[in-house]
User: What shape does this take?
Amino acid sequence: MKIAVVGSGYVGLVTGTCFAEVGIDVVCVDVNRQKIENLKKGIIPIFEPGLEDMVNRNMKKGRISFTTELSEALNDTEVLFIAVGTPPDEDGSADLKYVLSVARDCGKYMNNYLLIVTKSTVPVGTAAKVKAAVEDELGKRNVSIEFDVASNPEFLKEGAAIEDFLKPDRIVIGLNSQRAEDLMRSLYKPFTLNGHPVIFMDITSAEMTKYAANSMLATKISFMNDIANLCEKVGADVNMVRKGIGSDSRIGTKFIYPGIGYGGSCFPKDVQALVKTASEYGYELRVLKAVEAVNKDQKNILFSKIANHYDNKLSGKTITVWGLSFKPQTDDMREAPSLVIIERLIEAGVNVKAYDPVAMKEARHHFGDRIQYFEDQYEALIDSDGLAMVTEWPEFKFPKLQIMKKLMKNPLIFDGRNIYDRNELKRYGFTYYCIGFDTTK
Assistant: This one.
């Protein structure tokens, strides 16, 4: 079987590479010529553990190739995945111009049956728009070529995307024809041999499932952050509360860790898009509106703790930030809490020093020379008035406290991810702030 994947960003590249890994011939298409040329040389545009080795291995075996020409990619292709971006518009709705552009190009160049699958996160009703766009182009050519449209939303976690794709906890597929179902069953057979379930449903339900899943996870995060803020006020310890509720199997332990808000390419825009979809149908998603508001406020929590400690006299202070990406194991800084925290520190006249294992290059795109960048986490602490721990990279979890105390002007830590033991820090003479527990009492 030969497939094409249009869009060689995070979702498209992981999708194409993982299909190639199980022996399927894959051609990846992207309009960005520089990106395609780099991929042909084995240069990967994103940081994702294990992806570079897998891409190069499958290129050498001839199972994956890269092109800018969709017309070439459609030769002998049975299934085409649309994995292009769907950035949010100003009103929060998903911008489908790239998706529909691919659909129109399919209609222009296809010559045989084609199953067109939306892999991008798209709102309810997108499949119908894709179908209409293809039919319109076929009509302009005055040809009749059979095709199907399906929805196959991705559920990849940045930093663990390859594992998620090769060993999925579920595969959701929305379609409306037996031919399309047979093709998708065949395509995903290597991934289901170990019992990973394929859930077939109608296209509308599949489109909704992606948004509902991400919105549910975002809801758990904002709920726990709301509870954490209340815990500080009433004198409770949110870590104890988390353990107490997480032991309930109906709730579970995942996504109930308090922190400084969610970011990334999925949760923020998907929550906004679902809220927008609801409004278009005359319904208000009140819970998700609150989820979004809590998350926006939560990104300011760490700055507020820093400002309060210094009685809002921050000008001239030096604060070191550990962690810039929105989560560990990625260089993605889209909607990252670090963006909000650092901007507010800069506005307050703070000298910001920053370190992240992989996101330094990306950070320069956001901050330029307004902050200082360091290649070593401890060097960044020299003469610092405080440390803001923003992203919980593994290398930050067991710091050398004695060295830190000697390097820092003030032994002060603002822990945005609650990864440190406050009692241990107290023994070493550190002043410590975290989320969901008032350490000053």
Observations:
- The CA atoms of residues 232 and 437 lie 5 Å apart.
- The chain has three domains: 2-201, 210-297, 299-433.
- DSSP finds 17 helices and 14 strands in the chain.
- The longest strand covers residues 2-6.
